[in-house]
Design a protein that fits this description.
Order of helices and strands: HHHHEEEEEHHHEEEHEEHHHHEHHHHHHH
Largest sheet: 9 strands, mixed
Strand content: 5-15%
Helix content: 25-40%
Distance between the termini: 84 Å
Radius of gyration: 32 Å
Structural class: alpha+beta
Length: 512
């Protein structure tokens, strides 16, 4: 009862423990009422019944085999270096140093952050931060022990080319993906005791105290994976999601520090790829089965995706803002896709390795600034391609408005919801247009700003563009913002001044 309320109804640990104590008292009272006081086996019965009664709901979950297997790591509060693994309940930290000895490069100074603090009650050292990792093999064993899951996996069909794509499963990447034997990964013999599973990786941070402006501000991270072999409606059910680890707060890992907490998961994925996990049984394989796993999509918001895959953030690394091609902010106005040079995994991996093997942090900074690439633990997976497998999740892309922001604010595709003053004005006839243009030309030639300002903005802007004249504006330090300024934000007065200055300083004739 206590475990059910704790897991499914969110009853806190404190109140779950209180419920356990109440139930223990109730059972003891019932035993005293049913069995006479002089019963010879009363003491023995009470002892057998109540001696192992859990006083903590976590113990109850463990007795019911509900809790997942977890590995404990001592985590540096500064650089997130991990020390371990240790058993979940272990409090033996003799093999862990008191201060972090991690060096970013061979010539860097050690981190030297304190890894332990004194317990307020017991006065014994306890880790300042701990990272918990759930082994992939342990989760797979529980996952494949469920008959409904195995039935769904067995019913899944390998992706095939179709005109209509209903899910990422139908895409060419999954269709053409090859396994460690260099054969199509998702086409296996259904009679063999074997599962070949494809996962997507999600990394994101949240505030455990709630998203309140006036509340506490902290950031904890979650690393979790979803199996794409399942039908779409089962992908994101809580019981089907593999939580690989929880990144401790109260702040996010910076730059490459995320690699430290990704390392245990990548170690598991390497073993899951080759030779795979040999399970002693599954729901339909009483004599065991082989499980091979691959990670393909990295699905995060833009900031987490760049941090996880090893790409530079926006506005860094000489303006390289795309994880698919080598376009820079200076060439942002180039809308010809055929001229965009795509990134390749080989080139990306070579640069990332040179960053990883750099002897000094200064060399790393130079490589990062020039190429916008650094090392990611995911690159240890020989099949994983950051230039093809890094995507933006649907929640951020659609529901959080990323696509809208890019279309309206960056690409300038915004449409006004309210009609502007010029939109409500009736268009001129060709005769009227010629008359207005003649007035504009004469006004520019005699340097009459007042005469220009009496005209509609469209005539002034068209005249300026026909002569390659641009109004003066404040220089934005961000090239991406500078190149994507909305032209509608520049008033016609600025264009009028630019035209008059251009004609007076160059003594040229206007083009119409």
């Amino acid at each position: 009862m206590a475990s059910t309320l704790h897991v499914f109804s969110g009853l806190s640990r404190e109140y779950s423990n209180f419920l356990l104590a109440c139930l223990q008292t109730l059972v003891r009272s019932v035993v005293d009422m049913i069995l006479p006081a002089n019963h010879p086996t009363l003491a023995e019965t009470k002892t057998a019944l109540l001696s192992d009664w859990p006083i903590d709901v976590h113990t109850a979950l463990k007795l019911l085999h509900i809790n997942p297997e977890l590995h404990q790591y001592v985590c540096c509060p500064t650089c997130f270096m991990l020390y371990g693994p240790l058993p979940e309940e272990s409090k033996d930290y003799h093999n862990v140093p008191n201060v972090c000895n991690h060096r970013a490069t061979p010539t860097s100074a050690p981190c030297s952050s304190q890894l332990f603090r004194e317990d307020r009650e017991g006065g014994v050292p306890v880790p300042s931060r701990r990272f918990w990792h759930q082994p992939l093999q342990s989760w797979l064993a529980r996952f494949l022990s469920r008959p409904d899951i195995v039935k769904s996996l067995r019913a899944s069909v390998a992706p095939s080319p179709e005109e209509t794509l209903f899910d990422i499963w139908d895409g060419c990447v999954f269709r053409e993906f090859k396994g460690p034997d260099d054969k199509l990964f998702l086409t296996s013999d259904p009679l063999k005791p074997e599962f070949r599973l494809v996962f997507s990786l999600f990394i994101d941070w949240f505030n455990p105290y709630g998203m309140k402006q006036s509340g506490k501000h902290a950031s904890c991270g979650a690393i979790y994976m979803v199996c794409h072999n399942l039908p779409v409606h089962l992908h994101y059910q809580v019981e089907n999601v593999y939580i690989a680890g929880i990144i401790p707060g109260p702040r996010e890992p910076s730059s490459y520090h995320l690699n430290h907490v990704l390392r245990p998961l990548v170690d598991d994925l390497l073993r899951a790829w080759s030779p795979g996990f040999q399970l002693t049984r599954s729901a339909i394989h009483p004599f065991g089965c082989l499980v091979l796993c691959a990670l393909i999509p990295l699905v995060c918001d833009l900031l987490a995706a760049r941090k996880s895959a090893g790409f530079a953030g926006l506005g860094q690394a000489e303006g390289k803002f795309c994880s698919f091609c080598l376009q820079t902010a200076e060439g942002f106005s180039n809308t010809d896709p055929s001229s965009w040079r795509r990134r390749t995994r080989q080139e990306h991996l070579a640069i990332a390795k040179s960053w990883r093997d750099a002897q000094t942090e200064a060399i790393r900074a130079q490589i990062y600034q020039k190429f916008g690439v650094r090392w990611s633990e995911l690159l240890r997976l020989s099949y994983w391609d950051p230039t093809r497998f890094t995507v933006i999740d649907t929640m951020h892309n659609l529901f959080a408005g990323n696509l809208q922001h890019h279309c309206r604010n960056i690409l300038g595709m915004s449409a006004e919801t309210k009609p502007t003053a010029e939109a409500s004005v009736q268009p001129h006839s060709p005769t009227e247009q010629q008359r207005e243009l003649d007035i504009a030309i004469n006004a520019v030639r005699i340097g009459s700003r007042t005469g220009l300002m009496r005209l509609r903005r469209g005539y002034i802007v068209s005249l300026a563009r026909a002569n390659n004249v641009s109004p003066k504006s404040k220089v934005d330090s961000n090239p991406l913002t500078r190149l994507t300024q909305n032209d509608q934000a520049v008033g016609k007065g600025a264009y009028a001044d630019a035209l008059i200055d251009w004609v007076s300083s160059n003594a040229r004739y206007l083009a119409v």
